[in-house]
Write a structure and sequence with these properties.
317 residues; alpha+beta; Immunoglobulin-like; 2 domains; 4-stranded antiparallel β-sheet; 3-stranded mixed β-sheet
Length: 317
């Protein structure tokens, strides 16, 4: 991006015309006017040359990025079709859906790269600025010739003033166009940086929110609960006693005996699915019952179990 207008095509920035020195010789008015015109034309010509030479790499990179992004997007659209036609079709050993997402993401990244570095927009600005300066240069040449044709021989002070003013206006016009192009670049650069910072901050905030949500969910899922098992007919058991076997996914966790009570209570129970087996003897006969118990995070689970009882058979009549 040019930072100084004037000329120098062999540098990153446009520099003033090397060796240019304007001077006025009242004894040689015609040659002095020619020097002024040459200076103005050289300033414009070298600015044009700078833009045309420096737009090449922007154009090539922009075209390569646009072509690659277009191809990647088209390929992402073709993959589902290929998968529908050929069910066993895959790419890189993975599903076509994932591959299509990768190609779409790659295309988006390329477009973002182009925008971030202003390749396509810079190419367009360079071409537009060079073309506009060239048009102004041709207008200056024709105006200068017309002013010379109208001037007296030798030119009067009024004639000289008009010619010098036209050259000054033209050089100022060229400088102004280069300055405006530079301002456009600065504005675009600042907007891109601001947008990048905004998007980066939004992504970081989204990641933080997702991490906080995941952590909260994990904490919620890890909240321990409690279980209370009531045996409705515990008073019918021999010696008013029953056993409780509490089992989880990895096997038995605890085996307790309850005497003179109807409830079995366990606290600090992690969320999950358990099996509760209540056993006892009723009328000197063993009896038991199993129950599946699902404990949610932080839940106080209450389960009621009734032990099977043998029905005595009376004497035959």
């Amino acid at each position: 991006m040019p930072t100084q207008s004037g000329s120098a095509t062999n540098g990153y920035n446009i520099q003033p015309v090397e060796g240019a020195k304007l001077s006025w010789d009242p004894e040689h008015v015609a040659s002095s006017l020619k020097d002024v015109a040459d200076y103005a034309e050289t300033t414009a010509a070298k600015a044009i040359s700078w833009y045309w030479s420096h737009k090449i790499w922007k154009a090539r990179l922009s075209q390569a990025i646009q072509l690659t992004a277009l191809s990647s997007t088209a390929l992402a659209g073709l993959l589902p079709v290929m998968a529908a036609i050929f069910p066993s079709f895959s790419i890189f050993g993975t599903s076509t859906g994932l591959a299509a997402s990768v190609f779409v993401g790659f295309a988006a990244a390329l477009i973002g790269l182009d925008k971030a570095f202003g390749l396509s927009s810079g190419w367009a600005r360079y071409v537009l600025t060079a073309t506009t300066i060239r048009k102004s240069l041709e207008e200056f040449r024709m105006d200068w010739m017309a002013l010379l044709a109208k001037a007296n021989t030798p030119p009067t002070k009024d004639d000289i003033g008009v010619l010098l003013q036209r050259a000054r206006d033209f050089v100022g016009l060229v400088e102004g166009m280069v300055l405006q192009e530079t301002k456009d670049w600065v504005t675009e650069f600042q907007n891109n940086v601001a947008q990048l910072e905004k998007e980066t901050k939004a992504q970081l905030d989204a990641q933080k929110a997702e991490a906080a949500k995941t952590k909260a969910a994990q904490l919620q899922e890890s909240r321990v609960g409690s279980v209370e098992i009531s045996v409705s007919n515990a008073d019918k058991t021999d010696n008013h006693t029953f056993d409780v076997s509490w089992e989880g996914a990895q096997g038995q966790i605890v085996h307790d005996t309850v005497t003179d009570g109807e409830e079995w209570i366990r606290i600090n129970v992690p969320p999950g699915q358990y099996t509760a087996t209540v056993s006892a003897t009723i009328g000197a006969k063993s009896t038991s019952r199993k129950s599946m118990v699902n404990v949610a995070p932080g839940e106080s689970k209450k389960v009621e179990i009734t032990l099977p009882m043998s029905v005595p058979v009376g004497p035959k009549s």
